[in-house]
Amino acid sequence: MLDMRETAGVRCDRAERAAERAADRQDLIRIMPAKGAQLEIVIIGAGVIGLATAWRTAARGASVTLVDPDPASGASTVAAGMLTPVSELTYGEEALLRLGLASRARYPSFVAELEELTGRETGLRTDGVLQVAFDADDLAYLDDLRRFQESLGLAPETLTGREVRGQEPMLAPGVRGGLLVPEDGSIDPRRLAPALLAAAEKLGVRLVRRRADAVLVERDAAAGVRLDDGTRLPADRVLLAAGPWSSDIGGLPPGTVPAVRPVKGQVLRLRTRTPFLRRCTRGLVKGSSVYLVPRADGELVVGATQEEMGFDTRVTAGGLWELLRDARELVPGITELEFAEVTAGLRPGSPDNAPVLGPSALPNLVLGTGHFRNGILLAPVSADVLTEMLLDGTVPEQARPFTPDRFEVTA
Amino acid sequence: MREQAARADGAPGGGDRLVIAGEEFGSRLIMGTGGAPSMQVLREALTASGTELTTVAMRRVDPAARGSVLDVLRECGIRVLPNTAGCFTAGEAVLTAKLAREALETNWVKLEVIADERTLLPDPVELLDAAEQLVADGFVVLPYTNDDPVLARRLEQVGCAAVMPLGAPIGSGLGIRNPHNIELIVEQANVPVVLDAGLGTASDAALAMELGCDAVLLATAVTRARHPVAMAAAMRHAVEAGRLARLAGRIPKRRYAQASSPWEGLSTGS
């Protein structure tokens, strides 16, 4: 892994060097198909990233096989689907902000194409996201966030407590103030993932409902995938998009896949028959965060915990209680809503929270994983850059900060 | 013990090491891991801090999970100090400490028993009770305590290996609210005193060391800083500076000025 003595204070350098190496690495996509021949792509993992990339690559004429024992069943069934690159801005993650903004901008056309192809609705909402401070300490935090947003040229609308409640009358009377980001929004991942699957199948993507055991390596390059029943699927190029399981795939030289770990999130769903919240609302409540995402059909998604518990998807009393505690402080009326369900999912967390997008050290193996809390937001842009990497063998400019070699040891 | 160490050294510099329960540490900065924006930032901040001992909340990690904060500490060669954050009763804290001992094969524990979620202040009665039970069970107990000299003394009397009074509530960044009490705790203690919680910036850490604390424990001040790695380096220097200042001995405070160079015998140059 990283050399400790080298890592402190060399972050800027590292990004530059990663960009240089990414440029060098373009020759790692070695096999160019004969003219007219169809490129054979195998994608490991049918979550939103694998599905969206399957659709995009098939649309460009590749022959695509998706390998997943249970497609569209992972984090996308748990995730709330917030499209909030601005509202969730974090210090030190400016590059991720730019990628998030690019992806958010692609969403309307991405969804329009998808809905037209499949005839399915995805619940995209682009009516803004409200971020609310519960007490004075929370307001100080929001002020700090706003200054950071403004320093990057973003312009959230600042609202007083009364203005916030004018927007959302169900909020607790004591809320101190908030920020409105008109361009942020949400989508329903439970509609998005099946729509992507339908689109992929419509374009002839082959779906293999098995677990991928290993990447096949021939002459020091990826040559396909071996399934858990021993079947070998040959491929010109392999995309590894197996979320938190990406680091566990067999057959690869050590260090080919950066450490991607599962970060557990518990999310609950309430149901209302009468209009309740108008828009996606994120709250800071006495220092802890909670979000409430309303859907047109009356569902209200409340999330989410963030736990380092390995591959554990148990729902816990404490997780549920923390969510309800903060949600009730922020919106007292939620106690009257119907409790629909509570689920736990696993986010694929990379060491720096940013996605891992690009050619690996093993020729013909491309990585599309580590999207952490942003898998839904980043699906359109990830699918486009991964498609370019898989089919053209080039690394698009906007993906340069996210190539896997940023984690490699530098002497 | 601490004052003797200062006298034995006589001067700042080499050989001044933190000793807790017979174990030596070159760094007097103990770090926490809570609030870090990412594993990579945490790794870089820990490295920049120079810490040799770092706390991990056992209720929030699975010791077997890959890529967790424990892996980061292992790779950095930093000793893990499990803590019982999130426990409200002595019973929970004792159970959590035992699970940590089993999982991490260490009998050291940072003991936290919290009274309520709003202030996260220690519950003195439960804390003393848990400390007594854990010491009896063979643990090396480092209790997070109020800045109360009497409670600090009682914790030492039940056999704690250090006492760790707060500067201010956890995560508040308010600095040392009662420096006088910290001095009283330092004066009477025969075990190391670690200023734990509430620090906001480098001068707070330096002050803790100038007051005579043996070490400083902090997390939020670094992990939630705008640039965590730079703040970690600042804290490292502050702790070193404060320690050196303590050993060097500050000048008495005066009401009026006293020229640093004498006026007598100055050449007028005419």
TrEMBL record, chain B:
GO terms for biological process: thiamine diphosphate biosynthetic process. It comes from the Bacteria. Pathway: Cofactor biosynthesis; thiamine diphosphate biosynthesis. Its EC number is 2.8.1.10. Residues 20-262 form the Thiazole synthase ThiG domain. InterPro entries: Aldolase_TIM, Thiazole_synthase_ThiG, ThiG. Keywords: Cytoplasm, Schiff base, Thiamine biosynthesis, Transferase. 1-deoxy-D-xylulose 5-phosphate binds at G171, A197, G198, A219, T220. It catalyses: [ThiS sulfur-carrier protein]-C-terminal-Gly-aminoethanethioate + 2-iminoacetate + 1-deoxy-D-xylulose 5-phosphate = [ThiS sulfur-carrier protein]-C-terminal Gly-Gly + 2-[(2R,5Z)-2-carboxy-4-methylthiazol-5(2H)-ylidene]ethyl phosphate + 2 H2O + H(+). The active site is at K110 (schiff-base intermediate with dxp). Pfam families: ThiG. One of its GO terms (molecular function) is thiazole synthase activity. Belongs to the ThiG family. Catalyzes the rearrangement of 1-deoxy-D-xylulose 5-phosphate (DXP) to produce the thiazole phosphate moiety of thiamine. Sulfur is provided by the thiocarboxylate moiety of the carrier protein ThiS. In vitro, sulfur can be provided by H(2)S. This is Thiazole synthase. It comes from Actinomadura rubrobrunea. The lineage of its organism: Bacteria, Bacillati, Actinomycetota, Actinomycetes, Streptosporangiales. The gene is thiG.
